[in-house]
Specification:
Number of strands: 9
Strand content: 15-25%
Largest sheet: 5 strands, parallel
Structural class: alpha/beta
Shape: elongated
Bound molecules: 3-thiophen-2-yl-1H-pyrazol-5-amine
Distance between the termini: 43 Å
Length: about 250
């Protein structure tokens, strides 16, 4: 997968060179390029913003530099498999399912905005050339979309084959948001490791029983319990077929 990020703060994306995503890039699984938006400005001040039409506070990002950047990174005729991702608080929620969908793309271009956002006409013109996803990573307002890009690149990148080792495969996503496997759609229950007794607190004996069926049942019950307590909306969203008789007895 090729990933292009266009930003006026390239240094914000430095963490992409680290750890998991950095290794994936080194391994050639991810081909990540960060670009300075001002590359595609031509005036003396490398202007990327201007005052909002109709008045109001702040500044709006001009459409021209973004359009030139997009055209350079996705040349006309090469749109197949390319998707433009625009982080925004007013976008549709970025969820694990959206991450799984984005992981199927061959080319993602991220357009993190600053200020009050990008001139709408850029989004509309881009949507005539490739799918455009306006995505929110949560109901709060950041100063810019770069942090959202880091979140999305990590959530998507870790799903790509070869990025996670087998031991930490995304198929068994421990936070249960994965749409795969027996815990699909549930939050993860409590996890434990050695020592068996720490701070006078015991690991639940069932986990030391060696009975894998009983342990699996206990983990599912704990995941259901935690999900019902913390995110009852996820329980509502569960496919009834995914709940067995014992689940319903909970
Ligand atoms: N979820 C979310 C996205 C954002 C921003 C994207 C671009 C500027 S602010 N805030 N919150």
């Amino acid at each position: 997968m090729r990933i292009d990020v266009v930003t006026i703060f390239p240094e914000y994306l430095a963490p992409l060179d680290v750890s998991l995503i950095g290794k994936a890039a080194t391994a050639g699984i991810l081909d990540i390029h960060v670009h300075e938006l001002r590359t595609w400005t031509h005036d003396r001040h490398n202007t990327v913003d201007d005052s909002p039409c109709g008045g109001g506070p702040g500044m709006v990002m001009k459409p021209e530099p973004w359009w030139e950047a997009l055209t350079a990174l996705v040349p006309p005729g090469s749109e197949d498999g390319a998707r433009l991702i625009v982080p925004t608080p007013s976008g549709r929620p970025f969820t694990q399912r959206v991450a799984e969908d984005l992981a199927t793309a061959s080319h993602l271009v991220f357009a993190p905005a600053r200020y009050e956002g990008i001139d709408r006409r850029f989004i509309e013109a881009a949507a005539e050339r490739m799918p455009v996803e306006e995505l929110s990573i949560g109901d709060y307002v950041l100063a810019g979309g770069e942090v959202a890009v880091l979140v999305m690149v990590e959530a998507v990148g870790r799903l790509l084959p070869g990025v996670l080792g087998n031991a930490e495969s995304a198929k068994d996503d421990s936070f249960g948001h994965s749409s795969q496997g027996g815990m699909a759609g549930l939050l993860e229950g409590p996890v434990y490791t050695k020592p068996a007794n720490w701070d006078g607190r015991e690991v639940p004996p069932v986990l030391l029983s060696g009975n894998h069926a009983v342990i699996a049942r206990w983990r599912r019950d704990e995941a259901l319990r935690r999900t019902a307590q913390t995110r009852p909306d996820l329980i509502e969203a569960l496919d009834p077929a995914a709940l067995d008789k014992k689940d319903r007895a909970q």
